[in-house]
Amino acid sequence: MPNTGTKQRILDSSVLLFNREGLANVRLQQIADETGISVGNLAYHFKNKEAIVTAVYESLFEELKQILSTYLSHPSLNDFDDQLRRYYSFFRKYRFYLIDLFEIERSFPDIIAQWHEFVAKMILQIRRRIDYSVNRGIFIPEPTKGLYDTLSDNIWMTITFWIPQQVLKGLPLDENSFKSALWTQFQPYFTDKGWAEYLDTIAPIEIDRGK
What we know:
By secondary structure, the chain is an all-alpha fold. The chain folds into 2 domains: about 1-45, Homeodomain-like (Arc Repressor Mutant, subunit A, Orthogonal Bundle), CATH 1.10.10; about 55-210, Tetracycline Repressor, domain 2 (Orthogonal Bundle), CATH 1.10.357.10. About 75% of the residues lie in helices and about 0% in strands. The protein is elongated.
């Protein structure tokens, strides 16, 4: 397909500009300039900005679907650590989404409906991961009813909002800090076996990245 390269460059330029300028502030001329093509050439591939936004979100949701597909690819804490790495890259790449949340909700209701479906899947997957960890003996049984549901929500919120929070505070973004913010929420629920696995597999990786 001869146009695939140009279309992808348009989408990559759009994501870059949406992150830098905000979705509502980006014009077609800017996207064309960033891509290095004419507005007419851009219009050949996408009839308007709404079509570009829709295509960007199709790519976004496909990437998120791939991240979710890595769930329990192998039975260890490393499995989740690897998924966290993917989440960090994803939310850093598409950080405009949360900054422009209300604009998208108002103008693209279908996109928001899809996002809500993925949110539900993310939280359910986290909850099932906790249950699996309890069954493996690396998490303690739920201390009080509903606590692990709350923990699942808190983990999801950290995964989703850690990067924009850092941006708002003017703090640097780095994968190690992102992961530490998540692992510290799990640590109070480790059993001795869980701590041993964490110290043997995850902690050395975090220390090495922190150098």
